[in-house]
Design goal:
Elements: H1 3-19, H2 22-45, E1 50-56, H3 59-70, E2 77-83, H4 87-96, E3 101-104, E4 109-112, H5 118-139, H6 144-151, H7 165-200, H8 202-207, H9 212-245, H10 252-255, H11 257-282, H12 289-292, H13 294-312, H14 317-322, H15 329-339, H16 344-372, H17 382-394
Parallel strand pairs: 1-2, 1-3
Antiparallel strand pairs: 3-4
Length: about 400
């Protein structure tokens, strides 16, 4: 049997076994539900204006509340004036929670309820300043039209050089969440799969026919194909939902996020799968996988949190440095590519460094895996596995 045939047979077995598991379908469904929540929940629970009830006990206070209501859009609130008979009644409404702000003392003082939206007070203060300035100009003899022009000049003309920045950052955030989940999930699958074969002694039968490196390569390839297919399906469904819902305008820039995500998943998975394979080879039981895999999982977790910097500042110094570090680049670089413009040479250098790290880790993982996978008596140290390999070659 050739090496290619052996690797393909192992990979095919992994694909068939993994896609039959309930965890595969549950994970796919949960991820799609998370995408739906990310798309729709901000529109359902966020983005609306806060309603601010303003109690007024005098004509001057009522006039001030109406002036604030006319300009409340600028403060992201909706002012609702409520006339009352006296200042005491206005204060009572505040204590009972039926009002958020009270304008008392003939419009000269504000009393607010604790926890009320701050935009309401800001809108009333702005309206009060406007009214007092107009009164001062009138008392000085200024023409009312001139006073209005002085107090309400036209706003500055604005233009945006990057109107799609918010949409790209949103896509980068979603891509980061999905990519992080896939790397963690399928890396753990590699580790637990290796331990399952050790504890069931299936690995002894397999290694009687194929080499350890062929078994490792087939396992990593098979699980990776499952992850790649799931990621492609999730990405396509997510883009379809986003476009059909009308919440996101899916264009060419957004569609390009999917191949970027798939390409960097392949690279990141190749790197971390070898690390998780080492974890599976050196532990004797399933229960030991989580604790032994902690350093690898911490590396992914740290890269995940550091990638948030790349979403907000794709061209920042920290983001650029992290996109060249092999253990963080699978998460940071795709986020930078989706959220902003990255020079082609930076992408090329990042890929070359990551491929070099993958090649080195493949050799290391193959050696440790081959020397430790048959040892089921207890946990095997990495250095012990390497020394065992050198001793065997010397003998």
């Amino acid at each position: 049997m050739t090496a290619g045939t052996a690797i393909w047979l192992v990979a095919r077995r992994e694909v068939l076994e993994r896609t039959r598991e309930k965890a595969f379908f549950i994970g796919t469904g949960v991820t799609i539900l998370i995408l739906v929540a990310v798309i729709f929940l901000p529109q359902v629970f966020g983005g609306g204006e806060d309603e601010v009830t303003v109690a007024t006990a005098s004509p001057q206070a009522a006039q001030l509340a109406r002036a604030a209501a006319r300009a409340d859009d600028a403060f992201d609130v909706r002012i609702v004036p409520r006339a009352v008979a006296s200042d005491a009644q206005a204060r009572r409404l505040l204590r009972e929670g039926d009002a958020d702000v009270a304008i008392v003392a003939g419009g000269r003082r504000l009393v607010e309820r604790g926890g009320a939206p701050g935009g309401g007070v800001a809108a009333i203060q702005a309206a009060s300043r406007q009214q007092r300035a107009e009164a001062a100009l009138r008392s000085s003899g200024a023409d009312p039209a001139d006073a209005q022009r002085i107090l309400a000049p036209p706003p500055l003309a604005t233009a945006s050089i990057d109107e799609d920045a918010d949409a790209r950052q949103a896509f980068a955030f979603v891509a980061l969440i999905v990519l992080y989940g896939q790397l963690i999930s399928y890396g753990i699958w590699v580790a637990t799969g290796v331990v399952e074969e050790k504890t069931s002694r299936i690995v002894e039968i397999l290694l009687a026919t194929i080499r350890p490196r062929e078994l490792l390569a087939g396992k990593v390839l098979g699980i990776g194909l499952v992850g790649l297919g799931q990621l492609l399906f999730i990405g396509a469904v997510g883009l379809l939902i986003a476009g059909a819902s009308g919440q996101v305008d899916v264009g060419g820039r957004e569609l390009s996020a999917l191949p970027i995500l798939l390409a960097w998943f392949v690279l990141g998975y190749a790197l971390y799968a070898c690390a998780f394979a080492i974890v599976g080879a050196i532990v004797p039981r399933q229960e030991d996988v989580q604790s032994t895999a902690t350093p690898v999982m911490l590396a992914i977790l740290a890269s995940f949190f550091l990638s948030f910097q790349a979403i907000s500042e794709p061209a920042g110094t920290l983001s650029q440095v992290l996109s060249f570090v092999p253990f963080s680049s699978p998460l940071v670089m795709p986020v930078r590519m989706i959220a902003g413009d990255v020079a082609a040479w930076q992408v090329l250098v990042s890929v070359l460094l990551l491929v070099a790290a993958i090649a080195a880790l493949v050799l290391l993982a193959g050696r440790i895996y081959g020397n430790a996978v048959l040892q089921t008596g207890g946990k095997v140290g990495v250095m012990d596995a390497l020394r065992a390999g050198r001793a065997a070659r010397t003998a």
